[in-house]
Structures
1.
Amino acid sequence: MKKEFNIVLVGGGSTWTPGLLKALCKLKSRLPLKKLVMFDINEERQKVIGEFAKVLFSESYPELEFIYTTDKATAFSDMDFIFCQMRTGGYAMREKDEKIPLSLGAIGQETCGAGGFAYSMRSIGDMIELVEQVRQYSPDAWILNYTNPAAIVADALNKRFPDEKRLLNICDQPVNLLRSYGRLLGRDPATFDPVYFGLNHFGWFTHLYDEQGQDLAPVLKSFIAENGFKPVDAEQRDKSWLETYSAVADMLRDFPDYLPNTYLQYYLYPEYKLSKLDPHYTRANEVMDGREKRVFDECRQAVAEGTTRNVHVVHNDAHGDMIVELAESIAFNLKKKFIVMVPNQGLVENLDDDVMVEVTAEISCHGPRPYGVGKIPVFYKGLIEQQFAYERLTVEAWFEGSYTKALQALTLNRTIVDAKKARRILDALIAENKAWWPELH
Ligand SMILES: NC(=O)c1ccc[n+]([C@@H]2O[C@H](COP(=O)([O-])OP(=O)(O)OC[C@H]3O[C@@H](n4cnc5c(N)ncnc54)[C@H](O)[C@@H]3O)[C@@H](O)[C@H]2O)c1
Ligand SMILES: O=P(O)(O)OC[C@H]1O[C@H](O[C@H]2[C@H](O)[C@@H](O)[C@@H](O)O[C@@H]2CO)[C@H](O)[C@@H](O)[C@@H]1O
Ligand SMILES: [Mn+2]
């Protein structure tokens, strides 16, 4: 078994990169690295974070070999892990994904509804190209992908690379929820043994066992329904995220069976959310004015001062920890539990085998060994099947260049429903995505 690993971080200029770099430093005794490479197609953006990384590593990881590059051969050769968090089109396109549907009377959101559809149609091609390029240089490396919309990216990659055994799509929202439950209950979330099912950004915790096997879900559900719910890092969250977490209490009052993923608010309460979202100032604006600005300002500050001592915003969080701990579990065959995306194949007994579900899995050197959850009740089955049909039609629309399938996808989405509205949104999105999407006919 190898003792030191090489990692390339794709999307080196991501706002999440500094937090991930800090997680690599914090966990370096658990996942020792020989070499870290940052790769991005945007040289200027990556340079700011890359220079910050040099300062950080000089203080916390001096033995690490580190470079940042825009050259694929340099980036992808001789790698053990590829961590991937790219955003095709950047925040400028995210803003359009959010504002165009809102201007036409539908939810505009990064990964849900029409916004998520538009983003998928940009992400799929770049992610396929990435996997092909990585495989040219590092045929056995593990690709751990965060790139959104992860549900649709996962289905598209599964269709294009059906024999890939070392490609895993992940999301940190479930672990972020577990950390939030931990704060609320005054318990260490690392001790939780969760039972979870659904699609990415579309799932539920059915049970939350503690180390003694006691299910904490009932007490958690009544506490949240009565007192509300906040993220673990509430003090650092923007207003929109606090509102998102508070919607969990509404969902639990209406549907008390299971603890819902926060993203379900857009599908369960599309009219209410539409009335609350500002079509002129969306989450993309909040991020560009907030996290993006703070991260890049603080990275420049650290470089100017030659130390990371005075920078605080680039902290460790669920995002960085999860990806590093997942790689650790693969590297050292730890069989730790994570919530990840895998083909269903009977895990949810009354869903089709090829649905990309999100469930708890043990992660070993062979990858995920997922846990089945049996049959799910009709309400959840109905929601998931409708959402998966939307996701699958989106993937097929991309591969086939089919306008009809794109229209079917948007019509099936619970945030749209009306086919005429779907057509208006689709046409407006096509007009703004000519540089990114395949041509639809
Ligand atoms: N799955 C999850 O739970 C999760 C959590 C957080 C973020 N994300 C995703 O991570 C990604 C990054 O998010 P962000 O908000 O930091 O965005 P960002 O725009 O700050 O960073 C993305 C970076 O990717 C680069 N990039 C774009 N296309 C590329 C390509 N083809 N190859 C290499 N690099 C490319 C950009 O230049 C940019 O520097 C997004 O896809 C986001 O949705 C996912
Ligand atoms: O709107 P953004 O860009 O702030 O976030 C979008 C992402 O939101 C989720 O990620 C959480 C993450 O789970 C948590 O660890 C913490 O760091 O906050 C993030 C949100 O700020 C979601 O899971 C991702 O898929 C989204 O891209
Ligand atoms: Mn996610």
Note: The mean pLDDT is 97.
2.
Amino acid sequence: MPDLEIRQVSKRYGDKVALDGVSFEVRAGELFGFVGSNGAGKTTTMRIALGVLAADSGEVRFGGSPITHETRTRFGYMPEERGLYPKMKVFDQLVYLAELHGLSANAAHKSAETWISRLGLAPRRLDEVQKLSLGNQQRVQLAAALVHDPAVLVLDEPFSGLDPIAVDVMSAVLREKAATGVPVLFSSHQLDLVERLCDRIGIIRGGRLVACGSVEELTAGACAQLIVSVPEARPGWAKELPGVQVVSEEPARTVLELAPEVDDQLVLAAATATGPVREFRRLRPSLAELFRNVVAGEPK
Ligand SMILES: Nc1ncnc2c1ncn2[C@@H]1O[C@H](COP(=O)(O)OP(=O)(O)OP(=O)(O)O)[C@@H](O)[C@H]1O
């Protein structure tokens, strides 16, 4: 399966610069989480990636070629504003959308049934979409993005408003699709979920991509924190160590922040000198912490 590449994409709405030279790629088989504050430019990027909105400059490529009408029919899209036909029944809607994307009537029926059952919609299959709860409408929307077996998946906040069970179903489906080689791009404000689920993450701020990589890559340069447990240590044992700041100190658990040049093995030696060390581990900053640092002072 091919990669989806967004290259140097810029977009203005009147005077407002919504995107300013955004570039990243979603590799075949990867789950890519797209995060940023409200108004940072996620929806605009995704709509341009799909070809439903034109960029002012830059381009989007799939499998090394520009997006065409033909490639676009192989994209699966879950728009933020949802966009289902409210009065159509769930089953009919999915069959209709599958046929619109080129499936035969028979294949469209089969695929609609498969996704209805996979997404727990069987009891609702003959209901009008407008009569479903919002969470169930979202499941139908996911089914609509998947029913034609897309080669690329782009989902705008697919997890918003879902209950925990639905979050698990959505996560499993996205993972499965990625495992078949499909590039999957989705936006979310649920950073713990993005951190858990995604292979790589892009952080957009004020229309510019300010960080991109795996969580490990993104947090590699961050100030190292250490958790050290020396139950018999005398209080304040770490206070005098050069380049080390004590974040918190409880009897059995001291949290330290190390300046980048400090060798953690020296800290370990100092800890051992004061008593038996029961725990010694580096603490990685969470995506939420990283996000706060990266977007701090975001332009309005
Ligand atoms: N049709 C439009 N006309 C004018 N400005 C727009 C339009 N669509 C988006 N914008 C502006 O472009 C910027 C980027 O918006 P976009 O919807 O892409 O952000 P977002 O990251 O998806 O935000 P959210 O997390 O709130 O969904 C915002 O400042 C927004 O107000």
Note: The chain has ten helices and 14 strands.
